[in-house]
Amino acid sequence: MKPADLPWPSDIKEAVSLQKELSEQLIIKGIVENPDLVAGVDCSSYGSSGIIVGAVAVWSLIKGELIGSTTAQVEAKFPYIPGLLAFREIPALLKAFEKLDLEPEVIICDGQGTAHMRGFGIACHLGLYIGIPTVGCGKSRLVGSFSIPENDKGSVSTLKYKGKEVGRVVRTRTGVKPVFVSPGHLIGIDEAVDIVLKSCTKYRLPEPIRAAHRLAGETMEKLHS
Domain 12-223: which topology? Predict the structure, then answer.
């Protein structure tokens, strides 16, 4: 899977400008018809610098199991800065996707999509690079205001930022803290929520993300054992 060739910033100022520029290219609509292969992505790092491990885990909704995965490691070239996390992690994820011999129908990122101060979180970055529908599923809120959704699984509420809906707050498990879902690219908000709920079983986070998180962590442990 060969990612698109998009511009890359040389410093923080350029990174902020690039997010604003690329956000204009996003397509926040689209339906993934009866999806089966859902990829989860996550990264693991060691300290504030050094190696970044990117992991991609492909989950079959039909089979209910992991059917493929890859990892890649790169030297961190960008500092850890809230709102600019993609520039630190995307290189490792793109390298992992280049090694993947499956093509997922949709990707869920452990992070934000449009629920971002410049409307361009890591799921948006990855969607533009890969050209596959992407969804952001964050464990915590980055921006916006919301009301707490009802306690039952599947309950949602609107996440708004500067008067605009940027995502949804989704209860993926009854009685458990909700997650923050937003589209990244080539998918709508309703469809993003649907993908996340379909990818959750008995846990708060979608199975593809859980698998990618384990894989990234295990790979990093091996590198430093």
Answer: archaeoglobus fulgidus dsm 4304 fold (3.30.2170)
